[in-house]
Structures are given as C-alpha cells and as structure tokens.
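LAB NOTEBOOK - FOLDING QUEUE
OPERATOR: T.R.
BATCH SIZE: 2
PURPOSE: Compare the predicted structure-token outputs for two unrelated chains run back to back under identical settings.
PRIORITY: normal
REVIEWER: second-year student, initials M.K.

ITEM 1
FIELD SEQUENCE / FIELD STRUCTURE:
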Amino acid sequence: TVGGTAAGNYSLTNSPGTLTVNRAPLTVTVQNASKTYGAALPTLSGNVTGLVNSDTVGTTITVSYSTTATASSPVTTYPITATVGGTAAGNYSLTNTPGTLTVNQAPLTVAVQNASKIYGAALPTLTGNVTGLVNSDTVGTTITVSYSTTATASSPVTTYPITATVGGTAAGNY
C-alpha cells in the first residue's frame, strides 16, 4: 500500500514480492543403549532439538525408535534409528543421527564337581553344573562343556586340578 500527501502526483505500478518460509532445522539424536544377551530390549530414546511455534513431540511431531535386535540377538552391536512424522514434520529440515545398541555377554557359571579315584584306577567321569544359560541355549546343543584334568590312571597320590572348557555355537554370548 502506498500513501501520503503526494501519492496522487504519481502513476503507481505495484510489483508484488514473494516471502518464502523455509524449513526450520530439526535434530534428532538417538541415544546409545545396551542390554545383556537374553534380556528384553531396553526402552529406546533420543533427544529432539529445534522445535518452534509450540510444536512438541507427541502432539505435532512424532518420533519412534527401533532396532533390528531382539531379546535373543547374539552379542554384537545393532543400529538404533528414529522415524520422525506428525502434522508439522514437513515444516522441518531433519538431521537424524542414529545410535547403537550393544548386546553384552550374559554371565555363565560352570561349577566343576570334585572327584576322586584310587591310585592305579581309571579316571572317573568328570562333571559339573552349568548355570546362567538363556535364550533356550542348552548344554549339548548350542553350548558344549568338556572337563579335563592333568591326572592320569598312573598319577601318584596328590590332588590335581579339574578344568572345564566351554564351546559351542552360542559360547560367544557368554
């Protein structure tokens, strides 16, 4: 609009301009997390910065977090990603930084049982008790345990150590 006391002295040509509203920057930074092999997935979360005009997460912006890992996933790292949506999402230019879920080893205990033998006799069967297996892992399928000693049938009278060796396809998870 043009006005003033001398406005009538002019032939007015009005060329309108354009106001461009650009997207505001929005940053989602996913928090790293960890869990023990066999445990449930933790609650995944992140930090959202840059919201303007009374936009809030849960109302005009939605953020959900996910990972490819499950409770039974083996020990390693997995990506955690954020998906951003909502009615105001189109008003933002998104920077989305993923996080990492680390699956740590579960504790496994092998309690070797004491044994004895008579001098000159064959070695007895060596055994132990295994506790802490999760995710349907079992001794004889995904876990192997072998027991050994330095003693032989002809070893002199004294004590000898009995040791357990753990192996199998799931051994790295413990």
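ITEM 2
FIELD SEQUENCE / FIELD STRUCTURE:
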Amino acid sequence: GTAVADPEKAYKDMLYKADKLFIDKDYSKARDNYEQCLSLKPNENYPKEQLVKINRIYKDAMYKADQLVLNKEYERARDLYKEASGYSPKEQYPKEQIKAMNQMINKSEVSGDYQSLLSSGDKAFKDKNYITALTSYNTALKQKPAEKYPKDQLVKVNAEIKKNTALSKAIEKR
C-alpha cells in the first residue's frame, strides 16, 4: 500500500528549514516556512513566536528607515526599505518608499539639499558673489517656498546689487 508521509517528520523538517533561514536572515522565506509549520500544527506556539519576531524585525527596519527619511538620509533609508521589503515582500509601503527615495536622491543630486543651498548662498553673499547668492537662495526658496530666511537674504542681495549698480553708474559718469 501507499505509506502516508510522517506528519511529525514533515513538521520537524519544515521547522528546521525555517530556523536555518531565520538564522541566515532570510526572513521572507523563513516566514513562509513558519506559516507552513502552522498549517501542519496550528496550535504550536514556537512558529507563532518566530513570526512575531520577524514582524518586529520588519517594523524596526521600517521605523529606522522612516527616521532616516526625516534626517534626509535618503540613500540609507532606501537601503533599509529594500531590506524591509525583503522581510515582507507582500507589503507595498516599502516598495513605494524605495521609489520615493530614488526620486529624492535624484532631486537632491540635481539641486542640492535646502541647507547646503543656504550655506552656499551665505558664503557667496559674504564673498560679494551676488549672482551665485541669488541663484542659491532662489533654488532654496523653490524647495521651501514658505521659508522666511531665503526671502530676507534675496532682499539684501538685491539691495547690494542695486547699490553696486548705482555706484558703477556714478563712476562711469565721471
């Protein structure tokens, strides 16, 4: 006759595989294997506890990635979202965040981040490089239109340009 596979052995093999994957940090496959263990033995606590751990690892990675975004560390955030997405491939949020991070990285490479624009604007203004200062403050203002500082600086830069223009016209008339 046909021998039915030993369900206890199948469970133990699956659990061994799941634990090995967990140790190797292959949380997505480990999750699948722990879920299969539960389908064989729904009342076992250990696979449930391991699934809780995997969810916690996923949530921790997501939290850390979200914190990196707040600090404008888009590359590190993207890497963590990729990692988290690997832990839980069905989740859409990390995938959406990876796309968003790629856009932010591209954007910041093009225009520089807000703070560095202000710094270069301030330096240019101090060095009387008024056109560079104007460009920096205007770009900063495009990124954060509600900010007062770049607006104030633009007023000062334009005043200096007018003063210098009036001065150079006065010199030409001599």
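REVIEWER COMMENT (ITEM 2): The radius of gyration is 29 Å.
FOLLOW-UP: none requested
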